[in-house]
Prior knowledge:
globular; about 70% helix; mainly alpha; single chain
Amino acid sequence: MIIIPLILIPIISFLLGILFSYEIRKIFARAQFRLGPLTSMYSELKPLLGTSRLIQPLYDILKLLYKESIIPKSANKTLFKISPWISFLLIFIASYFISYGGFTLLGNFELNIIFLIYLIVGVTLFWLIGAVASGSPWSEVGVRREAELMFTVEVTLVSSIFSIAILSNSLSIQKIVNHQLNSIPYIILNPIAAIAFIIGLLGKLHLKPFDIPDAEVEIVAGPFTEYSGKYLALLYTSKYFLTSILIGLFVDLFLAGGQILPPINPVNKIINFITFIILCLIMTFIISIINALAPRFRIDQAFKWMITRVWPISVLSIILSLIFVYIGVI
């Protein structure tokens, strides 16, 4: 019984990451009056290119796996090579903590949300270590931006998560989901925490207005500039995992994990899983619209805006949760 979720959960997380990344790219393209990756390929091109480009992010990874991995002469080769593997391993493990419509492996354990936070932080940390090890000036600029952004974003995300933990009196993701089944979704009780989480999510995924660390027109690809071949494929894979995990975590924390029916039989579980995916797609649509419409911050603007505007919102979300608990609303 353990082997099945051990295999299925990372596959589900990875495929959802590809789907969400496709949606982000497609909406961004349509906002610029471009086509983007095609869901249905033109009939005359189907023999050459296949029927769809729905899994274009997967094609990108497969293409990179067949390319040569070039190691810069100036790089610390050990750190440069091992950092993508460690970041991938951390986010791979993190996928087991999410409740996918009630389907989870480690989501029931108490304190698992603490482990998840450390794993997610570790992914970004090893991105930075690998970038520093490359010896590239473009990577160095990207690392400095990422480090400053990481400082503000992590505070926002963690405070938002803990405000929900206070409401449910639990640090278990599945228990937080179950608690909402017996009351109301926390996005209604504490929408301020939901807003703070969305802002932190944009920063964590490098979506506008927080795509500062890897702004292509300024610093090539930022921390990932010197990576190629299988190492770049690993970094992209980690980012797809991170996308699905953060979006899935939002649905778990604020929308009852998509569980609209008691998980007492297989039919209800399937309906809950489908609802989870639909809610994730809606959430992806929201952040995609923000990514398409928002201009890019400068790093000093982002740092100042996060501290002066978003941090107070994050503190307010915790205070609101404490008030609800104190007066016995939940």
